[in-house]
């Protein structure tokens, strides 16, 4: 089934989230942005990562669909005192205000989806590459 990769937020929407995650080839694509929740699918290339970040006041759920990575979290960007290997079918729960990163440690793309409570990216965000995300003035 072909997925319409656009932001369908603020209206009812049903999607096979596994198919959307696996079919997405962009670094980041927001597929639904509401007032208090956002769903994003991501593809992290080998030897790349999500990027060390923190979401102030926003909890995050991440589910790995394909691939393997290393999850790091901690109270500050220079104190990532939690580290665990993550792989297919595992979920990562990131508390608000917690620094975190997931590095792709495999030789194939790491496919994941993430749910932000509330939204973290501008509605309709598409970043084909990690570099595009880094250079987006709307990203923090």
TrEMBL record:
Against Gene3D superfamilies, the record matches this protein to: Jelly Rolls (2.60.120.10)
- MF-aspect GO terms: isomerase activity
Q: Does this UniProt record's set of keywords contain Isomerase?
A: yes
Write down a Pfam family by its short name. Cupin_2
Q: Which SUPFAM superfamilies match?
A: RmlC-like cupins
Q: What keywords does the record list, in alphabetical order?
A: Isomerase
- InterPro entries, per database record: Cupin_2, Flavonoid_dioxygenase-like, RmlC-like_jellyroll, RmlC_Cupin_sf
Q: Which PANTHER family match?
A: LIGAND BINDING DOMAIN PROTEIN, PUTATIVE (AFU_ORTHOLOGUE AFUA_6G14370)-RELATED, QUERCETIN 2,3-DIOXYGENASE-RELATED
Protein name per the record: Mannose-6-phosphate isomerase, cupin superfamily
UniProt source species: Carnobacterium viridans
């Amino acid at each position: 089934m072909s997925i319409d990769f656009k932001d369908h937020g603020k209206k009812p929407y049903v999607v096979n989230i596994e198919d959307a995650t696996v079919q997405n080839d962009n670094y980041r694509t927001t597929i639904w942005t509401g007032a208090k929740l956002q769903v994003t699918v991501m593809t992290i290339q080998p030897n790349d990562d999500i990027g060390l970040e923190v979401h102030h006041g926003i909890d995050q759920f991440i589910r790995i669909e394909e691939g393997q990575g290393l999850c790091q979290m901690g109270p500050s960007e220079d104190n990532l005192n939690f580290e665990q290997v993550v792989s297919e079918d595992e979920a990562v729960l990131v508390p608000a205000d917690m620094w975190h990163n997931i590095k792709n440690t495999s030789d194939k793309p790491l496919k994941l989806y993430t749910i932000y409570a509330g939204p973290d990216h501008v509605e309709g965000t598409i970043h084909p590459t990690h570099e595009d995300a880094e250079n987006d003035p709307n990203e923090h």
